[in-house]
Amino acid sequence: MDQGQVHFELFIKRAPGAPWSLDMASESRDQVVEAAQALMAEKRVAAVRVTKEILNAETREFRSVVVLTEGKIEEPRKQKVVEDREPLCVSPSDLYTIHARHRIGRLLEAWLARSQATPFELLHRPDLVERLDAAGVELQHAVQKIAVPEAQARGLSTHELIRSFQGLIERSVARVLKDGRRGAFPDLASEGFVAAAERLSADPEAGYLLGAGVAAQLAGAANWSEKVARLMDLADHAPTGQARKLAFDVLEQPLAEILETRAGITDLLGSSLDLGGRLAAMTRLAASEAVTRLVAAEPSVARAMPPLEGPAQRLAALLEKGSFVSVRAAVGRRILQELMGPRRLRPSDPVQEIELLRSLAMALTAAASQLLPAEDVHEAFVARSRMLVTAEFVEGLLGRDESARQEAEQLIWLTENVIGAANKRQAARYLMTHVGSLRFEKELRYGPDSPTVRLAALAVLQRDAGRAGLTEEDLAPIQTKLGDIGGAIEADSKIAAMLAQAQAPVGHRLALLLRLATGEAAPLGPAADRARAAALKLLRSETARAELAGAPEQLAQVRDLMQAAGLAA
What we know:
Layout: E1 6-13, E2 21-26, H1 29-41, E3 47-55, E4 62-71, H2 98-107, H3 109-115, H4 119-124, H5 126-134, H6 136-154, H7 158-181, H8 188-191, H9 193-200, H10 206-218, H11 224-236, H12 242-259, H13 262-269, H14 275-286, H15 288-297, H16 299-304, H17 310-320, H18 325-339, H19 350-366, H20 374-388, H21 391-398, H22 404-417, H23 421-435, H24 438-446, H25 451-466, H26 472-493, H27 495-501, H28 506-517, H29 526-540, H30 542-549, H31 552-564
Helix pairs in contact: 1-23, 5-7, 6-7, 9-10, 9-12, 10-12, 11-12, 11-13, 11-17, 12-18, 14-15, 14-18, 14-19, 19-20, 22-23, 22-25, 23-26, 24-26, 25-26, 27-29, 28-29, 28-31
């Protein structure tokens, strides 16, 4: 069977009684198993299960084989619970809560996108209500999509729930149309936003009535960006006192809904940006102050963060003042959703994608206290790091025209920039496979550069690998292999013996040998050990001691190198 017809899936239980949910899928069995074991080791889940999915070429169906199961998988004994049989929404006012608006947005997503409207506008504009009511099929499908699962969960009749929801919709439609016909909604064009907010601030339905006036102001906007601009205009002229709180509570509802949609945020920030650019701009939008400070200190962040213009710049200034808390939260949720999604940030440039992720990580970490919880940011970057250690991404990163040494440098850089135990381990595998390849060894052993240059290059690779955040178990084989190649180069060229016998001052020869021995000019391993032995032998000679005694400056330099090499106290 072709390898492409087999993949592995990781399911997790976040609590003993929770259902299984799919966490990741990959063609690499080791990657999925190690991700499962890492989740259990970090105690982030209650149980894990890894399955092997095999595609039947004839039926096109998958057959599952359990590969690994760990944790508390037993189901707790279910207690008899009396279900609440009351509908979730019983009056038209219930539809205006944030949770109801989110659900309306999901159920009518396609219709709202075609109408270029938000759930807030739908609930406050008579023209949109009439248009939706006339499109019976759209509304009927939305009712069915919510009634069927709700009926199953609550043990009720589906038809009973459908009738209940239809009755609620009819009362809500009648309410908006009636209030629109009798002139209950304020006309902000003639009355003014400040006057309307102050007049309605003591009304029990102030949010509903003022919301209708705001929704009417958005009706003629040509696009999402213009809607945001109109909302900013209203915010710039908001009243003071109790009426100000009412005004901002109303304005932030459509703002948050616009920015939580992909179309809305794309139109606001500019359609020319790719996904990575939009994420950077969204971060700057929601955490302008923290990003501005970081941009001043980190040139790499400055290059990654596109400037904000027009309504986006105005909105960032308002958010920086502490206004529209729910809008900031909506942008944060959108950032996390995109980070944890499957789409590449820079599909055509893996190097820039890693650089962008570094900048985003710094910016989101700096803004974690005001934008997103630090643990959510960490989890999102762990999920994104899984994409960086896939075979497809690594192949694109290494390219086609680079030398084996340059590819090793790229793999070390990749390893340094991924987070999560399983992702680090997978990156270490790529690196170990590369440095253990015949191509890498031949290039470093027999390349055109001098032996000293090749030894110094291996020493740099060894040090950089040591700073990549790998565990000792993953790092040791890599550094050992680099040291062995260095030992072969030294054995071929006999650099240590040549330095010990060279016609040069003893201090100079000792300094060169000790730089090899300390891992500065050669990788730690056989080459460094032979250089250390040659340095000791040279130090024991009477001629060397006499020469060093007559040159105090060289003696001090040699003593420092000896201490670094562990040859002196």
